[in-house]
Known about the structure:
0% strand, Ferritin, mainly alpha, 6 helices
Amino acid sequence: xxxxxxxxxxxxxxxxxxxxxxxxxxxxxxxxxxxxxxxxxxxxxxxxxxxxxxxxxxxxxxxxxxxxxxxxxxxxxxxxxxxxxxxxxxxxxxxxxxxxxxxxxxxxxxxxxxxxxxxxxxxxxxxxxxxxxxxxxxxxxxxxxxxxxxxxxxxxxxxxxxxxxxxxxxx
Length: 171
């Protein structure tokens, strides 16, 4: 029994530091990193495929802002012992592939709707981490990044067919 107890103690103490943090923090790192990568990929598409100058400009802004935030998240997460995922979620991949098949105004409208949806989710994710996270570094990163995401959401709503408060759930 003493050997079993010693093995359990050894296994628990060998666990990664981040495992002691809340599941909210781990969930935040995963979702924030995946969302950031998806925004960069979609922004590159918008910058090249967008018909509207506003969509092109917004896409360029998403690439710039989210690339910067992704790098900062990697740094903060590594200090917390968290592993940042290397790719987007299957749902985000599917949404990106769907955008790739579109052209012109159809692309602009679909991209704008996607950006409103994505940024509504991101704002909620970052708000939750900034108030409920247990890791001080991640919590501070979320609080610092939240105003930029809120600005992105408002900008997305102004894109052609981006919502503008007219579609259900676009507030």
